């Protein structure tokens, strides 16, 4: 069973978005950081506005405004330019490829070389509606756009990964879900306590 195609720079950009998608403890840390930043802005801004007026609250608004501006700039301008630049530099990234799905592993080849990787060599895998990513390490992966695959080919790859107990990198375990729930409850509790303290200060 073979898969053949040629990757575009936009495939690598989509792979970066998938790779950066928060999940598990990383997701908790990311959402927690932005949540605390927002909470800090609110609890700092409201008392300052009440005491000194809106003009004095800029020190609390500046961090969140900076983040709101930087994130779209990075995702839609800086990162696409960087990915496209690397794609144009690295000729192998745009070379036509062929993957052969076997019971032993994934056999990959292009005009620059050949590699046979046992299924057990893959550390994890991740997917979305466009891509399937097979990770050899945290930063090295094989990218397979789903437009090159039939449903049978995709299922064959996933079946081999399951047989070799290769975990799905995007899926939250029960322990991580519990940890996330505890964190969210703690975050809500802190928010309530800060709000009550602000109400007491106003009175």
Spell out the blueprint of helices and strands:
Layout: E1 2-5, H1 9-20, H2 24-52, H3 58-89, E2 97-101, E3 105-110, E4 113-118, E5 124-127, E6 131-135, E7 141-145, H4 151-163, H5 174-202
Antiparallel strand pairs: 1-2, 2-3, 3-4, 5-6, 6-7
> Biggest sheet: strands side by side, in what order?
1-2-3-4
Rounded mean pLDDT score:
79
**Total of DSSP H or I helical runs spanning 4+ residues:** 5
**Global shape:** elongated
Reading the helices and strands in chain order gives EHHHEEEEEEHH
Radius of gyration: 23 Å
Q: What is the total domain count?
A: 1
- Let me know the number of strands: 7
Helix content: 55-70%
Pick out the low-confidence regions: none
Q: Structural class from helices and strands?
A: alpha+beta
Distance between the termini: 73 Å
The proportion of strand residues reads 15-25%
Q: The biggest beta sheet, please? A: 4 strands, antiparallel
């Amino acid at each position: 069973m073979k898969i053949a195609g040629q990757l575009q720079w936009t495939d690598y950009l989509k792979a970066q978005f998938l790779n950066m998608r928060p999940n598990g403890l990383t997701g908790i840390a990311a959402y927690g950081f932005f949540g605390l930043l927002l909470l800090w802005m609110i609890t700092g801004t409201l008392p300052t506005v009440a005491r000194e007026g809106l003009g004095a609250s800029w020190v609390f608004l500046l961090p969140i405004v900076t983040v709101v501006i930087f994130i779209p700039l990075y995702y839609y301008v800086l990162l696409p330019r960087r990915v496209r630049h690397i794609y144009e530099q690295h000729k192998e990234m745009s070379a036509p490829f062929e993957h052969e799905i076997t019971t032993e592993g994934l056999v990959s080849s292009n005009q620059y070389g050949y590699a046979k990787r046992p299924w057990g060599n893959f550390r994890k895998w991740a997917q979305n509606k466009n891509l399937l990513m097979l990770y050899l390490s945290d930063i090295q992966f094989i990218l397979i756009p789903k437009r090159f695959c039939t449903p049978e080919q995709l299922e064959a790859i996933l079946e081999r990964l399951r047989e070799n107990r290769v975990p799905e990198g995007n899926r939250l375990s029960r322990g991580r879900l519990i940890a996330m729930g505890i964190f969210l409850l703690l975050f809500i509790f802190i928010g309530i306590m800060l709000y009550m303290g602000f109400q007491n200060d106003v009175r």
